[in-house]
Amino acid sequence: MSLTAGPINRVNLPNAITITRFLLVPVVVWAIAARQMQIAFWLFAVAAISDMLDGFLAKHFRMTSELGAHLDPLADKAMLVSIYVMLAIGGTLPLWLVIAVVSRDLMILAAIMVSWLMDQPLKIRPLMVSKVNTLAQFLLAALVLATGAFGIDAGNVITLGIVAVGVLTGLSAAAYLLTWTRHMAS
């Protein structure tokens, strides 16, 4: 397994960084469960920085790969869903929000699988509303972890973030459902 760029190699440096981000997920889950919120916050910050770093390396040094195109969003989703579930279990995020976030992701996965099974593969490209939604989810997770880690009182900002993520998640789900429906009808 090589960590260099090239058309033959599948695991290059950006992909290795993404795989490392996957490995951080259970550690962040442990930190939240153990109420070690400073550890959870800093590991989440490392994951966010690594997400930017692997994207920068891939684009600017021509290290993009099909593997990376699939792994990167999966690593983001694994981190976000794990954090949201743990924060809901701890009573910090409302259960309805976590159900909406997870259900949207499962809906997209189911649509891709149905398209594939019906021999009408759908190439998913992130929609703008989805990118804004993911950013809002990351910011809300960071804010909630920071409040737990550093005792910051961000009550109204967290409430606003919860509403924003809820609305954006709904809009994103609707946009993907519309895209999928059009694809399947063609």
Topology diagram in text:
Blueprint lengths: L12 H21 L3 H24 L5 H24 L5 H23 L10 H23 L4 H31 L1
Question: What can you tell me about this protein's structure?
Answer:
This protein is mainly α and 186 residues long. It has one domain: Up-down Bundle (Four Helix Bundle (Hemerythrin (Met), subunit A)). 78% of the residues lie in helices and 0% in strands. The chain has helices at residues 13-33, 37-60, 66-89, 95-117, 128-150, 155-185. The longest helix has 31 residues, at 155-185. The protein is globular. The termini are far apart. The model is unreliable at 1-8 (pLDDT under 50).
CATH architecture: Up-down Bundle
Global shape: globular
Strand residue content:
under 5%
Domain tally: 1
Q: What is the C-alpha radius of gyration, as a whole number of Å? A: 18 Å
Q: Overall mean pLDDT score?
A: 93
Distance between the termini: 41 Å
The helix content, as a percent range, equals: over 70%
Which descriptors would you attach to this protein?
186 residues; mainly alpha; Four Helix Bundle (Hemerythrin (Met), subunit A); 78% helix; globular
Summarize the structure.
The chain is 78% helix and 0% strand.
